[in-house]
Every structure is written in C-alpha cells, then in structure tokens.
C-alpha cells in the first residue's frame, strides 16, 4: 500500500468520524422540534386552552347558582321587665340567648333577553379566533425556523467551498515553493501564495464563527432542544405545484389575516345582538330552604323555637330606561362591525399586492438560482483550464487566483440564491394559507 493511498484512506476515515460526531437535523425533524418546544408556540397553545375553557357550559350562564348560608348569634343581657298583666316585675342579670340559622338558596335566570345565548356563541367564535391566532404563530415560527435553518445550510456550504479554495491555495504554495527551490520562479510567487492562504484561512475562520452563531440561533427557535452539535440538510426541493391563479384563489380564502378578520366580523355581529338584549326584560326563579333555631332567655314567652321551611319566587326585571347606555353600546357595536368590514376590504387589497410581489419575487429568485447553477459550470470549466495552463506556466499566479476567486464567488452566490429562492417559496405558501400543508 503506497503512501498516497494511505493518505486517502486516512482522510476518508476522518471525514466519516466527523460525520458520526454530528447528528443530521432534517427539515422534518426541525419542524417537529419547533412545534413541540418553541416557547412562542407553547404560549399560543395556552391561549387556545383558555379560550376553550371559556366555552364550557360552566362559563355560559345557563346553569343556576346555589348558595349556602349559615350563622350563629349569642347574647348575654341584663333585662328588667314590667308586665301589663299584673305580674311582678322581673329582673334578669346575665340572661343568655342564642340564635342559629342555615339555608340553601337557588337562583336561576330563565330569560335574560337572549344575552347569554349570544355571549356563549361569541365565546365559541373567540375560541376559533384563538386557534387562528395560534396558527398564525405557528406559520410565523416555521418561516423564522427555515430562515435560520437555511442560513445554517448556506454557511455550511460556504465553509465547504472556502475549504476547497484553501486546499487549492495550499497546493499552489507547494508548487510555488518547488519552482522557487529549482530556480523556476521568484520568491514573489511564494509570497503571493502565502498571502492568499492567509486570506482564505481568515475567511474560513470568520464563516465558521458565523455558522456556530447561526446554529445557536436555530437552537433558540427549537426551544433549546438540541444539546449536541449537528449538521443540517443542504438539499432543497422546490415543491410548489400550483399555478398562479389557483394559488391566488387560495390566498383570498385561506390567508390567515383574512380568516381572523372574518372571525372578528362574526364576533361583532354577535356583540350587537348581545347588547340589544338590554332592551328586553329578565325573568328569574329563586328558592330557599332554611332552618332557624332561637334559644330565648327567661324573659321571653317562648323558650325555644325552631323553624324550617321552603320559599320560592318568580321575579321579573325590566330596565325601561337606563339613561341610554344600552343604546350607546349597540351603536358602538355597529360601528365596530363596520370597522371590521373595512379592515377586511383593506386586507384583501393588501393580499393582492403582497401576492403579486411574492409571486414575482419567488420566480425571479428561482431564475437567478438556475442562472447561478449555469454560472457554476462555466466558472468550474474556466478554473480547470486556467489551472492546467498555470501548471505549464502559460498563466501567472494573478490570473490563476482570479479564476479561483471567480469560482468561489460563483459557488457562494449559488448557495445564497438557492436558499433565498426556497425561502421565497415558503413565504408565498404562507401568504396563500398553504404553508402548513407542505411536506417538509
């Protein structure tokens, strides 16, 4: 086994060992971790839980109220009594008496002008609104997630391209040193190669630090779910299959901002009906079961009395005029409804503009990415030819370095264009309400 083959084997083993040390975080796994651990999503889910609790029958006003009451009173009196029937006067010092009572009271509103019915429906609409708000939080988190995820992927590929550039520069330094040793070149060629190696090394150090920072940013979005180093998937598939017209129709029916506004309109309609219930009477039912016991002092005719009984009643309350507060609330609710409708129209205009911008942005960035892919082929071919001519002395080190930088810049630009195009696609899907239907 020759030395060159041994070096190749060692290099491969080192690469395999490095890959094993880092776990691959796929896009699907990243989304799953974000949905489970992102704190913004957790907070949004808690808000949904509160809204769901509010829709319980226990918060509807339809159930009666049952109140228990109990009390005890103790008296210690000095009493002087004069009787009208001719009996001698009585003087009591330290006369004791006590009273005890207990009762259960039941109150139930039979009719309240339909106010609780509309309030209960409004609570259900607010629950659905909270779910839409949670969906918006999830969509924004996914966009944030992939913005950072693709930044990590881009920096990963950039580091790889910079390392390849550094390897070429090191090979060039060895060649320049050989040429200088054998008198085929001046010391200037060696110095130029060393300067380029230093620049390439600085670029790697800087980009590697950016990559580490980006990984930390990604872990924050994931709720700090990753405890070890990781690598990300740098493969990108453009999955958009819908045509512009069909996608735009979805945007006008599934856009999250539009759906929230429509839900607010439904809530405003119920608020008007709920406030109008103040014009109608309230009918209630009440009942009480009570127990009372009195232990009287010696001055009383009755020593001990105990009463138990059941009472019930029906009451009607009608606020014939409340100073105009109910009328004001109804008017304000109608104005709020009109505001929600205006907001919906404004959102529709904004969606049309944003969709056109997002559609053109995606297609332009996708075209730029395809052009950059072709540019890579051209730059690679130019570099390989320049490298061959450099080896036989037909081009100088400056021309070779320029071809090397051209290839590097083409790779860096291609990397940027690829992830910008993918992120633009996701933003277009979010605008159309289709983001959560994508298989990552």
What is the CA–CA distance across the termini?
A: 46 Å
Low-confidence stretches: 1-20
Number of helices: 9
Give the number of DSSP strands: 6
Question: From the structure provided, what is the oligomeric state, counting identical versus distinct chains?
Answer: single chain
User: Largest sheet, described in full?
Assistant: 4 strands, antiparallel
**Beta-strand residue percentage:** 15-25%
The strand line-up of the biggest sheet is 2-3-5-6
Structural class: alpha+beta
- Supply Rg: 41 Å
Order of helices and strands: HEHHEEHHEHHEEHH
Estimate percent helicity.
Answer: 55-70%
Mean pLDDT: 90
Outline, from the CA principal axes? elongated
Description of the structure:
It is a single chain. The chain is an alpha+beta fold. Helix content is 64%, strand content 17%. It contains 9 helices and 6 strands, in the order αβααββααβααββαα. The protein has helices at 3-21, 27-37, 39-54, 115-181, 187-221, 244-254, 256-276, 325-391, 397-431, and strands at residues 23-25, 65-81, 90-111, 230-232, 282-295, 304-317. It has a 4-stranded antiparallel sheet, with no helix packed on it. Strand 2 and strand 3 form a beta hairpin. Helix 6 runs antiparallel to helix 8. The radius of gyration is 41 Å and the shape is elongated. It starts with a helix and ends in a 9-residue tail after the last helix. The model is unreliable at 1-20 (pLDDT under 50).
Topology record:
Elements: H1 3-21, E1 23-25, H2 27-37, H3 39-54, E2 65-81, E3 90-111, H4 115-181, H5 187-221, E4 230-232, H6 244-254, H7 256-276, E5 282-295, E6 304-317, H8 325-391, H9 397-431
Parallel strand pairs: 1-4
Antiparallel strand pairs: 2-3, 3-5, 5-6
């Amino acid at each position: 086994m020759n030395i060159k083959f041994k070096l190749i084997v060692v290099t491969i083993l080192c690469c395999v060992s490095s890959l094993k040390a880092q776990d691959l975080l796929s896009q699907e796994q990243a989304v799953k971790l974000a949905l489970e651990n992102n704190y913004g999503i957790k907070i949004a889910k808690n808000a949904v839980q509160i809204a769901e609790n509010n829709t319980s029958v226990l918060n509807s006003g339809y159930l009666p109220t049952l109140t228990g009451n109990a009390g005890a009173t103790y008296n210690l009196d000095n009493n002087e009594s004069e009787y009208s029937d001719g009996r001698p006067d009585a003087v009591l010092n330290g006369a004791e008496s006590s009273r005890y009572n207990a009762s259960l009271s039941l109150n139930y509103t039979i009719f309240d002008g339909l106010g609780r019915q509309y309030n209960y429906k409004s609570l259900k609409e607010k629950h659905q609104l909270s779910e839409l708000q949670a969906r918006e939080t999830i969509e924004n988190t996914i966009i944030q997630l992939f913005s950072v995820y693709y930044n990590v992927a881009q920096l990963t590929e950039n580091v790889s391209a910079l390392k390849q550039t550094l390897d070429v520069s090191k090979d060039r330094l060895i060649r320049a040193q050989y040429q200088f040793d054998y008198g085929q070149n001046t010391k200037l060629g060696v110095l130029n190669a060393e300067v380029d190696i230093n620049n390439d090394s600085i670029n790697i150090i800087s980009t590697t630090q950016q990559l580490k920072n980006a990984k930390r940013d990604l872990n924050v979005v994931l709720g700090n779910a990753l405890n070890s180093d990781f690598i990300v998937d740098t493969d990108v598939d453009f999955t958009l299959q819908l045509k512009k017209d069909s996608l735009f129709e979805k945007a006008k029916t599934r856009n999250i901002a539009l759906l929230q506004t429509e839900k607010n309109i439904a809530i405003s309609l119920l608020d008007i009906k709920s406030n109008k219930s103040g014009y109608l009477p309230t009918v209630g039912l009440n009942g009480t079961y009570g127990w009372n016991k009195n232990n009287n002092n010696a001055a009383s005719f009755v020593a001990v009395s105990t009463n138990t009984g059941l009472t019930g009643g029906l009451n009607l309350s009608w606020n014939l005029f409340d100073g105009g507060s109910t009328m004001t609330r109804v008017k304000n609710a109608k104005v709020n409804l009109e505001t929600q409708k205006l907001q919906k129209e404004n959102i529709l205009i904004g969606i049309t503009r944003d969709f056109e911008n997002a559609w053109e942005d995606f297609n332009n960035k996708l075209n730029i990415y395809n052009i950059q892919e072709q540019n890579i082929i051209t730059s690679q071919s130019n570099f390989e030819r320049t490298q061959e001519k450099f080896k036989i002395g037909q081009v100088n080190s400056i021309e070779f370095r320029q071809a090397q930088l051209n290839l590097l810049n083409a790779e860096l630009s291609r990397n940027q264009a690829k992830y910008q195009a993918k992120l633009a696609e996701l933003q277009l899907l979010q605008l159309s309400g289709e983001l959560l239907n994508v298989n990552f």
